[in-house]
């Protein structure tokens, strides 16, 4: 019974906000040319927010004709409307907002000291808008770092970037990352990168800060001094002893002029003299905190949450490494089992749902598809609405993914003893002979898989793998 009365009370207060009866606050939200005048009631704002209590009691706000005047150019009128509706009636709807706008809303409620919403919006971002981190990871990380109350979101973003560092390190905004944030990341023992990649990322960042070429032979003495100063704070954070000898010689020793000479001497001794141990105390090897065990030479652990999310058609709330509802068991690897169709069927028939991934020859592009049925049968089309094709323009960067669910379910999957996997008109004939000629995109959308319709020959892949998708 009481809940019914609370709902009526909430509705009445929302009507008060909408009708603006006896308002005494005028808020100018947003910037030109999108400034909007919003009317409110000071007594309600004061009860619900310490920010407004302080503003009105200390007369921050200008008062004219008996009405408080507030100007908030840094908060858009749309977001201010959402905040005020929550203040009046306790309701808030976030599902129609994109990740960047939800983050802006979080910043606004933090400024307005509405503590209930700070936790709620952080939880929503973590559960439903994880993709937003890929859009501008450096900027988002810096924004969250500047707000002490965003602790849950900060922990989540750090953990996510340590699990999938390519989100940040492969971003074109990586070089804009502030030095304290980069230092904080390089200190992490759970950063999931080969140490040589960490070193190369640091160099890329450093050269961008100094606006210098990455070729040491082109540096002046002043350039060397600048780079030494820029690198100084980060050198102790690089686990140089975990770098392979070949990578050390070609990718580290090449920059010996900007590294401490005693470090270079110790590293040379370590790599040349058998069974020698490091002379100094060094940081322990990084140990990524990953729960996914993946048997693959083509994909990485960060592809798996994405595949699982696509299988379950989760549009905004993607899985992460902690809540994946499937296991992905390697059934077939072309380099191990052979490219012929017979090998494919011998390993993949009677296994139920599978996902296959191929690396296009001479590129970093990954392509493939998900078959929720099986590969049994000969010369038969199988009907399903759950299949999809995918394309990563750069397989090392999951933000380059493009996805296409089947458009014509009756021709979703084709099974033939003489062919490898076929979905629509994208298929492997066996013996590494691939083609894709769905010109009109009638079967699946055009998502950037190489099109062989207008070329005289098919294309090849370096290898492809097939995984059995097992519900946990």
UniProtKB/TrEMBL annotation:
<feature type="domain" description="BTB">
    <location>
        <begin position="23"/>
        <end position="96"/>
    </location>
</feature>
<dbReference type="InterPro" id="IPR051481">
    <property type="entry name" value="BTB-POZ/Galectin-3-binding"/>
</dbReference>
<dbReference type="InterPro" id="IPR011333">
    <property type="entry name" value="SKP1/BTB/POZ_sf"/>
</dbReference>
<dbReference type="Pfam" id="PF07534">
    <property type="entry name" value="TLD"/>
</dbReference>
<protein>
    <recommendedName>
        <fullName>Btb/poz domain-containing protein 19-like</fullName>
    </recommendedName>
</protein>
<feature type="domain" description="TLDc">
    <location>
        <begin position="297"/>
        <end position="470"/>
    </location>
</feature>
<dbReference type="InterPro" id="IPR000210">
    <property type="entry name" value="BTB/POZ_dom"/>
</dbReference>
<dbReference type="Pfam" id="PF00651">
    <property type="entry name" value="BTB"/>
</dbReference>
<dbReference type="InterPro" id="IPR006571">
    <property type="entry name" value="TLDc_dom"/>
</dbReference>
């Amino acid at each position: 019974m009481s809940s019914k009365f609370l709902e009526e009370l909430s509705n009445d207060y929302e009507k008060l906000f909408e009708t603006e009866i006896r308002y005494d606050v005028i808020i100018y939200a947003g910037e030109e040319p999108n400034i909007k005048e919003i009317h409110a009631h000071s007594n309600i704002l004061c009860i619900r927010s310490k920010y407004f209590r302080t503003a009105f009691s200390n007369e921050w706000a200008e008062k004219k004709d008996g009405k408080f005047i507030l100007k908030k150019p840094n908060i858009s009128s749309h977001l201010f409307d959402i905040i005020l509706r929550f203040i009046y009636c306790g309701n808030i709807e976030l599902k129609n907002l994109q990740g960047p706008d939800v983050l802006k809303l979080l910043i606004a409620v933090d400024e307005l000291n509405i503590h209930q919403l700070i936790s709620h919006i952080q939880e929503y971002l973590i559960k439903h808008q994880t993709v937003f981190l890929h859009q501008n990871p450096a900027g988002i990380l810096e924004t969250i770092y500047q707000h002490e109350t965003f602790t849950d979101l900060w922990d989540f973003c750090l953990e996510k970037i340590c699990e999938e560092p390519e989100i940040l390190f492969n971003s074109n905004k990586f070089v804009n990352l502030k030095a304290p944030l980069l230092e904080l990341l390089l200190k992490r023992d759970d950063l999931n990168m080969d140490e040589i990649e960490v070193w190369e990322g640091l160099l890329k960042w450093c050269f961008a800060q100094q606006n210098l070429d990455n070729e040491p032979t082109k540096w002046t003495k002043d350039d060397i001094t600048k780079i030494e100063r820029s690198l100084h704070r980060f050198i102790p954070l690089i686990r140089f002893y975990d770098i392979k000898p070949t990578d050390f010689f070609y990718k580290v020793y090449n920059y010996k002029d900007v590294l401490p000479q005693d470090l270079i001497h110790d590293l040379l001794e370590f790599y040349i003299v058998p069974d020698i141990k490091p002379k100094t105390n060094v940081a322990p090897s990084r140990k990524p905190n990953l729960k996914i065990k993946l048997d693959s030479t083509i994909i990485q652990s960060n592809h798996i949450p994405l595949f699982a999310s696509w299988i379950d058609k989760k549009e905004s709330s993607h899985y992460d490494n902690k809540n994946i509802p499937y296991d992905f068991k390697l059934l077939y690897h072309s380099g191990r089992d052979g490219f012929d169709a017979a090998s494919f069927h011998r390993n993949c028939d009677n296994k139920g749902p599978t996902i296959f991934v191929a690396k296009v020859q001479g590129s970093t592009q990954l392509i493939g598809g998900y078959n929720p049925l099986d590969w049994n049968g000969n010369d038969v089309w199988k009907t399903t609405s759950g299949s999809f094709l995918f394309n990563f323009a750069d397989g090392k960067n999951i933000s380059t993914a493009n996805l296409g669910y089947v458009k014509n379910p009756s021709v979703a999957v084709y099974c033939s003893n003489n062919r490898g996997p076929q979905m629509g008109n994208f298929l492997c004939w066996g013996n590494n002979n691939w083609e894709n000629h769905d010109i009109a995109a009638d079967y699946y959308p055009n998502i950037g898989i190489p099109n062989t319709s207008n070329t005289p020959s098919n294309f090849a892949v370096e290898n492809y793998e097939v995984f059995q998708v097992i519900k946990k």
